[in-house]
Amino acid sequence: MAELKDFLSELATDPERLGRFILDPDTVMEEAELNKDDQAALRSGFTSVIYARLSGLSTEEAFGLTLQPSVFPQQVVFPQQVPLQLPPQLPLQLPPQQLPPVYQLPPQLPLQLPPQQLPPIYQLPPQQWWGR
Questions:
Q1: Interatomic CA distance for residues 51 and 110, integer angstroms
Q2: How far apart are the first and last CA of the chain?
Q3: What are phi and psi of 123, to 5 degrees?
Q4: Residue in 34, 9, 12 with CA at minimum distance from that of residue 43
Q5: How remote is the C-alpha of 109 from its chain's centroid?
Q6: Where are the chain's structural domains?
Q7: Helical spans, DSSP H, in 1-132
Q8: DSSP letter (8 states) at residue 37
């Protein structure tokens, strides 16, 4: 009977075995002779359950639960969905509010900059247009 840690180490180092495990995990786990608790932990996909098994704890000791194989019914019947009807919404109307003077912005003045003359080094040369 293989230990879970050894089984996972072999999967990590043997790509062919990992590929077979991905395609048919039950067969590969049976070939490795993993015990039923380890197989159930791997099938669950929960990392905390697998970690508990690697630590040597059973799922009952670690979490107080028993893992059972998944059984899917042939036909799943879902309950009828009732359309959700919300009451009509009233338009949201708030009364106009006047802020106290402390929170009001001062009136904005148009921004006026004085004309600036660039130094000659930064000025563009005058454009001359000859008749075309």
A1: 70
A2: 99
A3: -85, 145
A4: 34
A5: 49
A6: 4-62
A7: 4-13, 15-23, 25-31, 36-44, 47-54, 59-63
A8: H
Cβ-based neighbour number of residue 58 at 10 Å: 13
Distances (CA, A) of 4 to 19, 32, 109, 116, 131: 18, 9, 78, 82, 93
Q: How far apart are CA 97 and CA 20, in angstroms?
A: 71
Residue 8: closest CA among 24, 28, 23 = 28
For the chain, give the number of residues: 132
pLDDT of residue 94: 64
Q: Measured between alpha carbons, how far is 26 from 37 in angstroms, rounded to an integer?
A: 13
pLDDT score of 44: 87
pTM for the model stands at 0.47
Highest mean pLDDT among 34-43, 82-91, 111-120: 34-43
pLDDT exceeds 70 at position 79? no
Closest CA to 37 of 71, 67, 70: 67
Read off the pLDDT of residues 3-12 as tens digits, 9 standing for 90 and up: 999 999 999 9
- Counting other chains too, the contacts that 93-96 makes at CB distance below 8 Å and 24 or more residues apart are none
